[in-house]
Amino acid sequence: EAGVTQFPSHSVIEKGQTVTLRCDPISGHDNLYWYRRVMGKEIKFLLHFVKESKQDESGMPNNRFLAERTGGTYSTLKVQPAELEDSGVYFCASSQVERTDTQYFGPGTRLTVL
Amino acid sequence: LAKTTQPISMDSYEGQEVNITCSHNNIATNDYITWYQQFPSQGPRFIIQGYKTKVTNEVASLFIPADRKSSTLSLPRVSLSDTAVYYCLVGDNNNDMRFGAGTRLTVKP
Hints:
The complex is a heterodimer.
Chain A: E1 5-7, E2 10-13, E3 19-24, E4 31-37, E5 43-50, E6 53-56, E7 65-68, E8 75-79, E9 88-95, E10 104-105, E11 109-113
Parallel strand pairs in A: 2-11
Antiparallel strand pairs in A: 1-3, 3-8, 4-5, 4-9, 5-6, 7-8, 9-10, 9-11
Chain B: E1 9-13, E2 18-23, E3 32-38, E4 45-50, E5 53-56, E6 61-64, E7 70-75, E8 84-91, E9 98-99, E10 103-108
Parallel strand pairs in B: 1-10
Antiparallel strand pairs in B: 2-7, 3-4, 3-8, 5-6, 6-7, 8-9, 8-10
């Protein structure tokens, strides 16, 4: 069974540019989560989709971040315009609807904003 | 990328010491080992990180043998609030941090 995949693995952009990150969850997983690991080791919650609906987006830092999950399959996270403080590793995770406590994480996308 | 393997679940009782082992046979020289705790509907919370031998903080201890192909997270005297999923990660700050599938720890009264 394929795990959670994320694309790209690394992205380097300049301040003010736009970047779109993609996450493909495990097939059949209705829950999809986005997280961000910035300086240090803490991983911050961004938002949670159940199918195509945003269940919880309380962790989204500001309106420069836009997450979508059209059709309830893969999800995209767009940062526009990117700022220096957006640099970090963005993780995506998915879980079954009846097993929300155990999430399967993707390898992450490392975003560097110069 | 180092693949990690953890037990799927563990049960314990309040006051016991819990040890969760993670296997990472192809760990790279530059890789660190990091453990996270996750409660439902929350992001993973950093617990401890180590490179080799033993690391201890106010929350847990991390034991890493000389060959670094495994690591053991030790939680002393667990309480009900320690019921969570524990993830082992291997990687460094310049490469992908590969999460394991996590170990669901259930602490019973």
